[in-house]
Amino acid sequence: MRRKVIAGNWKMNKLPNEAIEFIQKLEPLVKDTKNEVILCVPYTDLFYAIMTAQGTNIKIGAQNMHYEEKGAFTGEVSGEMLKSIGAEYVIIGHSERRMYFAETDETVNKKLKSALKCKLKPIVCVGESLNEREKGIANEVVTKQTHIALEGLKDSEVSNTIIAYEPIWAIGTGKTATSEDAEKAIKAIRDEIAKMYGQKISSGVIIQYGGSVKVSNAKELFNMPNIDGGLVGGASLDVEEFSKIINY
Ligand code: PEP
Prior knowledge:
The chain is an alpha/beta fold. It has helices spanning 16-30, 43-53, 79-84, 95-100, 105-117, 130-134, 138-150, 155-159, 179-197, 199-204, 215-222, 239-246, and strands spanning 5-9, 36-40, 58-62, 89-92, 121-126, 162-165, 207-210, 229-232. The longest helix has 19 residues, at 179-197.
């Protein structure tokens, strides 16, 4: 039985004092959940969030990393740097990074390998655009993205990777994929993993849905057989709303 993993993606929001206050408020609201709780915060909040979440069931992650270990990459942060301050998770290949910061399937694959080498737990985002969905090639697009992202990994590394299916047209728009469409896309991703690494590995991989998850749609989405929780953007900025999604 796969666990449910609910991760918040704060994007470029919240200062350290706001992060500390949020985690202090969230902790009692989610302390009894069986679901895994993750907050992916801006780099500048990481240290404060990690310190505040110590001894709680809230895990902290970053939203990006560079694939090189070190070197002349001004402004970048490596996986080892994240790990060294106690980050556990890292989002890789979010559609906003693909759209605004030239992230490609190939750099996603390099970052994933680098994160796993540093013993970070990656959350790899895949998802189709509206145009691709309207053309009827959504599943083709996400399976190709998944294939390139996961190429050349060891079985154990695939098992330690979380995939987030995030249709681009549903991110921050208030539009959500129907639970049936999300289930179909996630099933297609799981089938691709099975082709690459076998049924046993594939059936254990956590695959989340992301795209305008709210209290009102979380239960229906997360109760689908292949959907193992969610990556939550906007709704993770509000502590009450996010706690209700976690306790769906
Ligand atoms: C996201 O940024 O990963 C996301 C899913 O955002 P939202 O929930 O706001 O659509």
